[in-house]
Amino acid sequence: MTEAATQSAEPEPSPGRPVVLVVDDEILLRSVVAEYLRDAGIHVVEAANGREAITVLAAGEAVDVVFSDVRMPGDVSGYDLAEWVRINRPAVRVLLASGYVGAASRSRRVGDNAPTLLPKPFDYELLLQQLRGLIGRRDSA
Amino acid sequence: MSSSDQSAGTVQTVSETIIVIDPDILVRMVIADYLRECGYAVIEAASVEEALIVLASGRPVHVVLAEVSLHGAMDGFALAQHVRQHFTDIDVILTGSPTSTANKAHDLCDDGPLDKPYHPKEIVKRIDLLRERRRVSARPRSARQSEGLPPLKPM
Questions:
Q1: How far does the CA of residue A102 sit from the closest CA of chain B (Å)?
Q2: pLDDT band for position B68 (cuts 50, 70, 90)
């Protein structure tokens, strides 16, 4: 993906509530996850696909973590989105949910800047735990 | 949007659920955030198809807020008609109607469309008006008369 970021500098992490961009094309799942995270005190931005997520990130919206499904319709998969974030918004962490992650790897990171993988179906508490870990990692970076 | 703008909206004590349908995520998220700050539960839909999935799921919804010029299976007018026919407890607010279609919009949604650009607090005012009208119409006729309220006009 060659789309360039529209902002010249990475926005600062949000000073108040952490911000998570939830990306999923299944609205019922997306809205329930978003509601759960809002109840946990997280500010949630919802995107229906990878292209919408890039629109939000390219607009310079403060985002701490992108939580995205891997498989989505359209021209931007979860992996494409993670790659775009790595190039254009490197301080933003990425957590990818996939039904094809090996059962043994409950959640793993590959390399320093690689997205964290979360197997589907996932437990909401585990998701929240993973997100808080990533938010903390961004804050301490 | 400034905090003073947001404070202009009504803060709901009882959470009602609004579906916000707008294909432009940067518009949708601003409206949705504003409505949440006002105390509403908000479901964000990027398309009519997504909104129809939510409606068919049986999740409680009180108001549908939609762009007139939606693409896909239905535009905003067709969606308003669908909601009127199949979900009679749900109010519809359309936005962005061109003047030439204003009359059509008035027939299909409650109190006519909101022209763009609009401030989100106009949405809140419209929601409050529609929901209050529902509450009044749900009251027994005798209660309305004892409160000195005029007869209800058909919606």
A1: 31
A2: confident
Query: A46: which strand partners?
Result: A22
Nearest to B57 among A28, A48, A59 (CB): A28
Total structural domains within chain A? 1
Domain B14-146: homologous superfamily in CATH: Response regulator (3.40.50.2300)
Are the beta carbons of A49 and B46 separated by less than 8 Å?
Answer: yes
> What is the rounded average pLDDT of the residues B39-68?
95
Of A47, A48, A55, the CB nearest to B50: A48
Query: Is the separation of the CB atoms in A96 and A15 below 8 Å?
Result: no
> Given the structure tokens 């939510």, which residue do they identify?
B54
The answer, for A56 touching chain B at a CB cutoff of 8 Å, is yes
Q: Answer for the pair A117, A108: CB distance below 8 angstroms, yes or no.
A: yes
Domain CATH code at residue A100: 3.40.50.2300
Nearest CA-CA distance, residue A5 and chain B, Å: 16
B103 Rama class: left (phi>0) / alpha (psi -120 to 50) / beta:
alpha
Paired residues of A97 in beta bridges:
A69, A118
3-state secondary structure of B123: helix
ipTM for this model: 0.81
Give the domain ranges of chain B.
14-146
pLDDT one-digit tens code per residue, A8-27: 455 555 568 999 999 999 99
**Inter-chain touch A55–B25, beta carbons under 8 Å:** yes
pTM: 0.81
Name the residue among A111, A128, A108, A110 with its Cα closest to residue A119.
A108
pLDDT digits (tens, 9 = 90+) for A43-77: 999 999 999 999 999 999 999 999 999 999 999 99
